[in-house]
Design brief:
The complex is a heterodimer of chains A (226) and B (450). Helix content of chain A is 42%, strand content 24%. Chain A is an alpha/beta fold. In chain A, the strands form four sheets. Chain A has a five-stranded parallel beta sheet, with helices on both faces. A four-stranded antiparallel beta sheet of chain A has the order 8-9-10-11, covered by helices on one side. In chain A, strand 10 and strand 11 form a beta hairpin. In chain A, helix 2 runs parallel beside helix 3, helix 3 packs parallel to helix 4 and helix 6 crosses helix 8. The longest helix of chain A is centred in the middle third of the chain and has 16 residues. Chain B is an alpha+beta fold and 450 residues long. Chain B has four domains: 103 residues, no CATH class; 91 residues, no CATH class; 67 residues, Helix Hairpins (Orthogonal Bundle), CATH 1.10.287; 140 residues, Histidine kinase-like ATPase, C-terminal domain (Heat Shock Protein 90), CATH 3.30.565.10. Chain B contains eleven helices and ten strands. The chains are: A alpha/beta (226), B alpha+beta (450). At the A-B interface, helix 8 of A face helix 8, strand 4, helix 9 and helix 10 of B.
Chain lengths: 226, 450
C-alpha cells in the first residue's frame, strides 16, 4: 500500500503542481487549502506524512503542527519562504521534521519526504555510519576512516543527538535542550562554535562539511550518506 | 568678614598713628585713615566704607586729639579738620567703589562675550544645537553665577523647583533656560545676554533644519536615480528569463509541434534554469530594498568563518568546486548574523567566479588581527583599474566585463557587511580582482572547553 500524504497550501497552482508530482511518484495525495481544512482532513483520514505551507489564510502552519503533534507523530515538512526564518524555526520547534524553501524543486521535496518517511519507520541504530565516519553510541566511540577520534564530553553529546536522528533537521533549541538540558544559558551563544570545533575534528574540509550539515537559519543535521 | 576686616583696618591705622605721633603733628596724621577706608570701599562697597570713615574719625578724635579719651575737642579748628577728613574719606571711598563696580562689570561682560563666542564656535564647527544644549547650559552657568542650569529648545514649562527664563530673539522664544527657583538672577545680565544667545541659537536651529532638508533632498535625488536604474534592471533582468520561460512553455504546450523526448527535456530544463535565475534576481531586489529601507537588523551570534564560507559555498552550487578555501584552525569566531554574512560571501564568491574563466579558480583566505578578521576573495581575472573600484559597490554598476549579472551583488554585500559592523573594499592586486571583507572579532574570546 502506498503512503498517504496530505498537502496543505492556499495557492491552487502550487497545490496542483505538488499533487501532480507526488501522485506521479506513487503517493496517495489529499489536499487542503486552509488550517481548518487541514485539521479536519488530518482527523478524518490520518496521513503518513504532511506537506504544510507556513502561511495559511486562517492561521499558521506552526499552529497546525502543534495541534497535530498532540496526537500524531506523522512527519511534517513545512514550505517556507525566504525572509520568514523565524516562523520556519517556530514550526520546527513545534514538531515539524523538515522544511523546503519556496521556490523549491519537486525533486528536493520528494527527497525530503522519502527521508522523513524512512526515518519514521526506522528503528534506532546503536552504530551509525556515514561515509568514513562511524559513531558507536553504546561504546561511545567515534572514528573517521578507522582512526579513533577523541571528543570532549560535550562534543560527543552533541554528536550523539545528531546520530540518534540521522538525516533529521535538529533546531538550535532542540540541540541545546538535548545536550545541556532545559537550563541552558550562555551555551546558546556558543553552539555554532561547538559545532565548528566538532567539525574540525571530523571533517576533512570544514568549509565543505560532509557529515554535519548546516541548515541556514534553522539548525544542523547529520548526513545520511556521504 | 567685612565688618571684622574694617575694625582691623581702623585698629591697624590707629596703631601706626600712635607710633608716628611723637614725630609728626597729630592733626596731619588723620589723613592716614583714608588707607583704611579705600580697601574697604574696594572690597565691600560704599556703605561699609562710610561706617569705617565715621568710626576712624571717632577713633582719631578719641585717641589722638586733646582732650584725649573724650569726644570733646579743645581747639575748634580740629572740628574743621575732622569734617574735611570725612568729606575726603567719603569721596575717595565712592571713587574706589565705582572702580570696583566697573571692574566687576567688565568681568561680567567678558564672561558673557566668552560664552557667546564659545557657543558661536560650537555652532560654526557644525555641531547641532540639540547636541550642544548641555554645554551651552554650562556656559550660561558661568554668566549667571548659578549652579546646574538646564536649557531646552522652544518654550517649555519649568519643572518643580525651577524658574524659567525665556531665551527670546525678537518675539520668538528660541529656547528656555531653567535655573533653581531660589537663585538670584541679575536682570541687567538677563536683558543683555539672553537675546544675544537667542540670536545665536536661532541661527543654529535654522541651519540644522536647512541641513536636514538638504540631506533629504539628496536622499530623494539618489533614490530617484536608483529607481530609474532599478526599473531598467527589472525590465532586463526579469523580462529575459520570463521570455525564455514563456517561449519554452508555449513550445511544450503547442499541439502542432512534433517534439522528441530530448527536446521536451531541453525545454523543461530551460524553464527550470530561467526560473532559478528569476528567483535569484527577485531575492537580490528584496535584499536591496530591505537595505535601502534600513530594516536590516542583524541577529548576531558567534560563528566560525569556515562555517559561514561553507554555507555560502553550498549555495553557489557545482561551481563551488573551483573555490579554494584557506582558513587556519586557530581562526577565532566572529559575532555576526550568519544569514546576512553568508549572503555577503555568496555574492563575493559568485562575483569572483564570474571573473575567473573556467577552469581557473577563486581563492578565499582568512587572516586576523586582534580586533578584526579579514576574508580575502581573490579571482583569477584581469583585476580592476583603481578608478572603477568604488563604483563597483554602487547598485547596477557593471564593472569590467559588462553584461554579467544585475550588478546588485556587491552593493548588497557591502550593505550587509556594514550592517554587521564590517567593511568591504577592493584591494590593489596585480594578480587579479581582490575584494576584502573585514568583520569585527567577538569581544570576548570563545570558551576553549566544549
Amino acid at each position: 500500500m502506498s503512503a498517504r500524504v496530505l498537502v496543505v497550501d492556499d495557492e491552487p497552482q502550487i497545490l496542483r503542481a505538488v499533487r501532480t508530482s507526488l501522485r506521479g511518484a506513487g503517493y496517495d495525495v489529499d489536499t487542503a487549502e486552509t488550517a481548518e481544512g487541514a485539521l479536519a482532513a488530518l482527523a478524518s483520514n490520518p496521513p503518513d506524512a504532511v506537506v504544510l505551507d507556513l502561511v495559511l489564510p486562517d492561521g499558521s502552519g506552526t499552529e497546525v503542527t502543534r495541534e497535530l503533534r498532540t496526537w500524531s507523530s506523522a512527519p511534517v515538512i513545512v514550505l517556507s519562504v525566504v525572509g520568514d526564518e523565524a516562523e520556519k524555526v517556530a514550526a520546527l520547534d513545534a514538531g515539524a521534521d523538515d522544511y523546503v524553501t519556496k521556490p523549491f524543486s519537486v525533486e528536493e521535496l520528494l527527497a525530503r519526504l522519502r527521508a522523513a518517511l524512512r526515518r519514521a519507520d526506522a528503528p534506532a541504530e546503536p552504530v551509525v555510519e556515514v561515509g568514513d565516519l562511524r559513531i558507536d553510541l553504546e561504546k561511545r566511540a567515534v572514528s573517521v576512516g578507522g582512526e579513533p577520534v577523541q571528543l570532549t564530553p560535550h562534543e560527543f553529546a552533541l554528536l550523539r543527538v545528531l546520530a540518534r536522528n540521522p538525516g533529521k533537521l535538529l533546531t538550535h533549541t532542540a540541540l541545546l535542550r538535548e545536550v545541556w538540558g532545559r537550563g541552558y544559558g550562555d551555551e546558546s551563544h556558543y553552539l555554532h562554535v561547538y559545532v565548528s570545533q566538532l567539525r574540525r575534528k571530523l571533517e576533512a574540509d570544514p568549509a565543505r562539511p560532509r557529515y554535519i550539515l548546516t541548515e541556514p537559519g534553522a539548525g544542523y543535521r547529520l548526513a545520511t550518506r556521504s | 568678614m567685612g565688618v571684622l576686616a574694617s575694625a582691623g583696618a581702623v585698629v591697624l591705622v590707629s596703631a601706626v598713628v600712635a607710633l608716628l605721633k611723637p614725630h609728626v603733628p597729630a592733626l596731619s596724621l588723620g589723613a592716614l585713615y583714608v588707607l583704611a577706608v579705600v580697601p574697604v570701599a574696594i572690597l565691600w562697597g560704599t556703605a561699609l566704607a562710610a561706617v569705617v570713615s565715621v568710626a576712624s574719625m571717632l577713633a582719631f578724635n578719641w585717641f589722638f586729639l586733646p582732650p584725649y579719651h573724650s569726644f570733646h575737642l579743645r581747639e575748634s579748628q580740629n572740628w574743621l579738620a575732622l569734617a574735611i577728613y570725612l568729606v575726603i574719606a567719603f569721596t575717595v571711598s565712592a571713587l574706589a567703589a565705582r572702580a570696583r563696580t566697573r571692574r566687576e562689570d567688565a568681568e561680567q561682560r567678558r564672561a558673557e562675550a566668552h560664552a557667546l563666542a564659545e557657543v558661536a564656535l560650537d555652532l560654526l564647527r557644525g555641531r547641532s544645537v540639540q547636541d550642544e544644549l548641555g554645554r551651552i547650559a554650562a556656559l550660561t552657568a558661568a554668566v549667571f553665577r548659578v549652579d546646574a542650569p538646564r536649557l531646552a529648545l522652544g518654550e517649555q514649562p519649568p519643572r518643580e523647583g525651577e524658574r524659567a527664563l525665556p531665551v527670546e530673539a525678537g518675539l520668538r522664544c528660541v529656547a528656555t533656560l531653567f535655573v533653581d527657583a531660589e537663585a538670584t538672577i541679575d536682570e541687567a545680565v538677563q536683558r543683555r545676554f539672553l537675546p544675544s544667545l537667542a540670536a545665536l541659537l536661532a541661527v543654529g536651529v535654522e541651519r540644522g533644519r536647512l541641513e536636514a532638508e538638504a540631506l533629504e533632498a539628496e536622499a530623494l535625488r539618489q533614490s530617484d536615480a536608483l529607481k530609474t536604474a532599478l526599473l531598467r534592471a527589472v525590465s532586463h533582468d526579469l523580462r529575459s528569463p520570463l521570455t525564455a520561460i514563456l517561449a519554452s512553455a508555449d513550445a511544450l504546450a503547442s499541439p502542432g509541434l512534433s517534439l522528441g523526448d530530448d527536446d521536451r527535456l531541453g525545454l523543461a530544463e530551460t524553464i527550470r534554469g530561467e526560473a532559478t535565475r528569476l528567483d535569484h534576481v527577485v531575492g537580490q531586489l528584496l535584499d536591496l530594498s530591505r537595505l535601502e529601507a534600513g530594516v536590516v537588523e542583524p541577529h548576531r551570534e558567534l560563528w566560525h568563518v569556515d562555517e559561514l564560507v561553507g554555507r555560502a559555498l553550498a549555495g553557489v552550487g557545482a561551481e563551488a568546486a573551483r573555490v579554494q578555501v584557506e582558513i587556519g584552525p586557530s581562526t577565532p569566531p566572529v559575532e555576526v548574523d550568519a544569514g546576512q554574512v553568508e549572503r555577503v560571501l555568496a555574492n563575493l564568491i559568485d562575483n569572483a567566479l564570474s571573473y575567473s574563466p573556467s577552469p581557473s579558480g577563486v581563492l578565499v583566505r582568512a587572516e586576523h588581527g586582534s580586533t578584526e578578521l579579514r576574508l580575502h576573495v581573490i579571482d583569477s581575472g584581469p583585476g580592476l583599474p583603481p578608478e572603477e573600484r568604488d563604483a563597483l559597490f554602487q547598485p547596477f554598476s557593471r564593472g569590467r566585463a559588462a553584461g554579467h549579472g544585475s550588478g546588485l551583488g556587491l552593493a548588497i554585500a557591502r550593505g550587509f557587511a556594514e550592517a554587521n559592523g564590517g567593511r568591504l573594499w577592493a584591494q590593489d592586486d596585480p594578480g587579479g580582482g581582490h575584494l576584502v571583507l573585514s568583520l569585527p572579532l567577538a569581544p570576548t574570546p570563545a570558551p576553549v572547553r566544549a
